[in-house]
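*** Residues and shapes ***
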Amino acid sequence: MNKKNLLFVIDSLEVAGAEKSLVSLLSLLNYSQYNVDLMLFSHGGTFEKLLPKEVNVLKPLKYSTFAKLSIKRALLKSLEKGNFRMLISRINYSMEIKRKQYSNRGKARIFWEKVSNNIENNPKTYDIAISYAQGVPTFYVAEKVKAKKKLAWVNVSYRLTGKDKVFQKKYYDLYDRIVGVSESTKEIFLETFPEYHNKMEVIYDINNPQFISDMADIGDGYEDFFDGVRILTIGRLARQKGYDIALEACKSLKEKGINFRWYVLGKGPLEEEIRQYVVTNDLTDHFILLGVKANPYPYIKKSDIYVQTSKFEGFGLAIAEARMLNVPVVTTNFDAVYNQMVQNKNGFVVNMDSESVANGIINLINNHSLRNEITEYLKLEKKGNLEEIEKFYNLVV
């Protein structure tokens, strides 16, 4: 039997939910049936080292390489080649996003409008091409890849309006199937594009409980010998993750005299803003940024409470991982939360404000019997969802 040629496209393999989901999926594929290429717009992400050896990571796009150069080096290179198209595109994109406050959806649109003419077509023809994130990967697969079938993943609560809705429709029209990572993700996407109802389905982010359990026993995790309550949050340091809520809740916990430390795994554009808040509000010993860890599982396992303060999520992969390691969860009530949370059973779902988050944490800390009940419930919960791989196989026939 001839192997099928698959292409996956994603922005990068930095530490985040969609990226982890893709690595998990790739680790479970049957490579006797598939040849797999992976296209990244940014290389060097932490999760790249976790890719199966069978995955062929394609060389960087010429524009991606050019965009990493300093402006001086980019100018010299343009002079050397006598071609200023990439430099002009880069400057136009930078000037436009500085001119106005764009959402991530808007930035993706502006990027593609300004830069796509300088991005080369993929030379191969694939059986299946998959954009594993919305935005630029979706535009790239639609416009720059030849494939018998094209699939688009939607892994956040994706609402589009105005120019972004009109712009993205012409790309989603070119896909054979669209995959949401939860029922609520699908429903929210269809609020924008009800016309895609018949070509949309759900495949949950795949969680491999044995892999997570094994990884949790490798490495040391926390090294500060703290003996109070350890709270953990995992997520990119970005608005979506609700760090404003987390910081205010942390301040409230400190004012109430709780013996705790709140650790954060992640990096992102809000890092300096968060650090400034921590210093200004004397939270240096209470809200601790740990940066990015390729293996977050020892940290999860050694935490007392996992907290998610997200304003929206497609699924909430870090919550699933905390549950698999039997750590009680306090989370805000984002759209997809009840795809996996059972109120007062595996944790608390609270309102999207700092007081509610702080009260949820305090309830877990002070009510030992309830925390024990939740931990016992977590131990009995169904672990993982490896059966989702069968849905993927059915999609790529």
User: Anything to note?
Assistant: The chain has two domains: 4-208+388-395, 209-380. Residues 85-99 form the longest helix (15 residues). The two ends are 13 Å apart (CA to CA).
